[in-house]
Amino acid sequence: MTATIDTPTVLRPHAEQSYAHELAALAAADDKPRPPGWRLSPQAVVTYLLGDGDQISPKYIGPRRLMEVAVATLATDRALLLLGVPGTAKTWVSEHLAAAISGDSTLLVQGTAGTPEEAIRYGWNYARLLSEGPTPAAVVPSPLMVAMRTGAIARVEELTRVPSDVQDTLITILSEKTLPVPELGDEVMAVKGFNVIATANDRDRGVNELSSALRRRFNTVVLPVPGSVDEEVDIVQRRVASLGRSLELPEVPDAINEIRRVVTVFRELREGLTADGRTKLKSPSGTLSTAEAISVMTSGMALASHFGDGVVRAADVAAGIRGAVVRDPVTDAVIWREYLETVARERDGWKDFYRAAREAE
Amino acid sequence: MTSDRVHVYGIRHHGPGSARALVRALGELRPDLILVEGPPEADGLVALAAHEGLQPPVALLAYPTGTGTTPGEGASFWPFAVFSPEWQALRHAVTHDVPLRFCDLPAGHRFAARAAAQAPAEPTADAGSEAGTVETDPADPAELRVDPIAGLAHAAGYDDAERWWEDVIEHRRDGNPFAAVAEAMAEVRAGSPAIGEDLVREAYMRQTLRAALREGHQRIAVVCGAWHVPALTGDLPPEKADKELLKGLPTVPTAITWVPWTHGRLASWSGYGAGVTSPGWYHHLFTAEDHPVERWLVGVAGVLRGQDLPVSSAHVIEATRLADTLAVLRGRPLPGLAEVTEATRAVLCDGDETRLELIQRQVVVGERLGAVPDDTPSVPLARDVTAQAKRLRLTPEALVRDLDLDLRKPNDLERSRLLHRLRLLGVDWGRPAQRARGGKGTFWESWQLQWQPEYAVDLISASAYGVTVEQAATAKVVESCPAADLAGLTNLLESCLLAQLPQAQPAVLKALADRAAVDTDVAQLMAAVPALARSLRYGDVRATSTDALAEVLSGLVTRIRLGLPGAVTGLDDDAARALRIHLDGTHEALNLLGAELPLRQEWLDTLSRLIDRPDLPGLLAGRLLRLLRDAGILDADAVELRLARSLTVGVPAPSAAAYVEGFIAGGGLLLVHDEALLSLVDRWLTGLGPDTFTAVLPLLRRTFGAFAAPERRSVGERVRHLGSGEPGRPASGDDDLAALDPDRVALVLPTLKLLVTAGGSQS
Per the CB < 8 Å rule, is B326 touching A68? Predict the structure, then answer.
């Protein structure tokens, strides 16, 4: 449909466009059996996501087993539910999974509180409906319906934000793999290769909790926050670099120290434990995800390059960190001050940061 | 010629596949003697394996006895589960009436060797992280230095040795892997250096084997770790070298017994050094006849349903499919524990880690507790208690008896320690009692002793913690740390001091620091300070790292300082009174530490910032004023100014009365000596209207009633003379006498008289 827009003016091309060469290379070298309707074998999909350290760049940095479970789930015809706190790359992973498996990541339903049933099943072209009556031509198919017809992966974003009654229309699709169109006395039967990847945020739990009948149709993979400081620094660095490039920020020479610091602060507060494991801390109410660390860093870089001398310093990130940590002005502020007094103050080489953070108070 | 009489089975300790294969092999071989890797001291205990009271998991526990060694120091365990090949060999021996001997180096030799190695350096050095755990047999050096299986696994293209072994050996349900294992091990050992301790152990194994051959046994089955197989197969080397190696090995007397074991312990430590992380899974692999994955997932579903979590058969079907697909994706022949766990997480647990943890605990580790028959030799802990009680002349009696201990006497001090430690173990032989008569010194400690028969059972269950009272109490304290709250932890810390368990202290401190970090209740934090400060001031400095204590304390005080401003407002009378007590306690504790730490100054700074807050309850404001005055932060003028301000008409009378209470509580001498303050209070009091006076009277009465009678009297006298133009009196000696209690003075007089007259007769 829109696959031809591949000009440099596009702010963000789809995964299958950006990584077309990698997908092609994998497909060429792939000699393992492919499940029906799949562009790649499950092993190659895992390689596409995790990278091979050479030609294929890593898309997801984290435990291999999660990607294996995710791919194995899709290979067994089960729908996949990616859970995680905001900023743990759920959407990113689902997009790349769809791109690798069906070569098309655009069959997307964005879940909101106002998502209607038509977005999941089908709608009508009312002009046609009125003039011709219910005919196949008058049906406006949903991305899911298209995916069923073509045997592709459909994606549902933020499933828990969708009202419960609308969520439940997925049940028949997932268990019977068919979508009846009673108005036409017809149905759409899913072609092999069809499957659904849904993402949901488990921080705002209870918005529209999935019914157990629907839940049962999904295998759940919880995407965790990055496991180690180095991993997270790596992620932040990669994303900050690529974001900085696409936002056309001036190159900032050496931000690795501040990245490490931001990541350390975020991790320690998130886990309620200092990096050396010796001191427990209280956790603030914000999620402090990797994505937030990335945005603190990009704004720090913007500050440094536009208003400073181009080097990211403690002062450029301190205010951003405080803003991310202190979501609740009363309790979080105490937690933040406690962190500064008991952890940051005594740490070697953190004097500048401590001072900058105290000033930002 | 020997090789057709000797059959060596190389196993992995606690390997279900090895156990299964061994059962089959022994059934086919029908040996007339079985040799098992294990301490030969245990030969006499083999027969107990036939006893139905001996239910695995159990462990052989060996510990050095005799003089010169601390009982229990360096005890070793050889645990057995149902799926341990060694246990299956034992069962085969007792059911088929085949003699069985253990053929490893005797534990006595090992203890002696270890004692020799430790002699120069006292073992206190490693008190830190190892605290509380019984010292286990150090891991099999072979497994430590070169991992034989890792080499093979790597050759087979696996990066995880455990997984390779599982795929190749443990998940096999048929066939005889022993020949292949022996061959592979010979290959691996050819390329790795010999290790001294191994050589000695294998020499001993060969000697046992030779003795068995000499006795004329025709079909000898040897069950040992795969690593030792090459040393025992084929024609045995000349005996001479082995004799040389074993000659003159030191030994110590050793006792050995069966003790109940748990899967949990099997998972965390083991005398073989080959701990297993998933005893429950292995148990399942060994006991399930067929379809291990399906049966396992059904079992998991059952556990989840037991917790009222909705899990249907459809879930189990999908989980099985996912596990199978994952195994294919990863190129494994069968789903292993990793795949099954992933499937459990993704399908049965909806990605919920807490549910998975439940599965881990209940199913993967599987809390199975072994049992030993009553006629097993008694547990070392009970023996240790008996021995210590005998040495300290404490006889267990069923009748209640009072015991006063004078802690200045070494014997009494040890008694006290023993009783405190037993209390920590849940054996309340002695209960602390109020001292009935005489002697108020801190060195007195009073107990009520009463021995209940069930304490014997308590000791047996406590024996899982260690083999001596000290060890067991330490381990128990360490174990109870995570569940205790802040106040409980401070109590534990004090108990550690009383019971002298320096090794438990670091763990308690760590838990305390952690708990303090997440606790938001400032009062709770403050309640923990005095005990900590006491420990720091009077604690056994030799045994505890004072740094750790000081660090915890300063962290605690920092948190209190940050939290205090928010905690002092919006309090009702009761809460304010409770906080006042904590405030005093903390202040006193920090005073006690004095200049040792910079904490006191920071604390006083915090208090100074608080004092002028208008929203403070009167009681706390008064108290703060007093504390700062006593600390010399506020001079007389500043104090007077504030007191005057609080005792004016603008302040409601009850609040002012509370202010006075806070200010002068705990000592009226202040009013006696400082006339300015006294007149302020006096003026305020006399200026009260009749109604308000009645309202504050109870408060004032409570304040003044707490003073000692002579204090009250002299305050009264002061008031009488107020403004009567006799300001010069306060410094007179009369005034000092006023503070004395005539009754107590009377007690001293005879002695004084004696001294004076004694001096007189001398001259």
Answer: yes
